[in-house]
Amino acid sequence: MVSQITRGIKISVLTTFEGTYFKNHKIHFAFSYQIIIENQGKDSVQLVSRHWEIFDSLNDIEIVDGEGVIGKKPVLKSGESHTYSSGCLLSSPFGSMKGHFNMINFTTTKNFKVIVPSFKLSAPFALN
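== Co2+/Mg2+ efflux protein ApaG ==
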């Protein structure tokens, strides 16, 4: 698990290799990841959008931007956390992801970015 704290918001990531399958006559490597967002600050905050950079060792970087996470825009009071799971497909058994969440602080009404640390996506059978 990798973790990072930005402005009182701790992001932790746990990844899992889910397997391979064929789609459009091409093999794909499926990975899931669980994100834990913990508000260790004193103010209530809301996650409003996300930005991902997905690195695949055989492809260009894929950029994904969107509202919320899995259809939600969680509000976190001080001491609260939100956990969600998602996934991605790679065309190789190796890659990584990194990004950030755009948040709003309800006390100051200011927007800020929370860094999601880079995390590796690797199929165990492909490692030495």
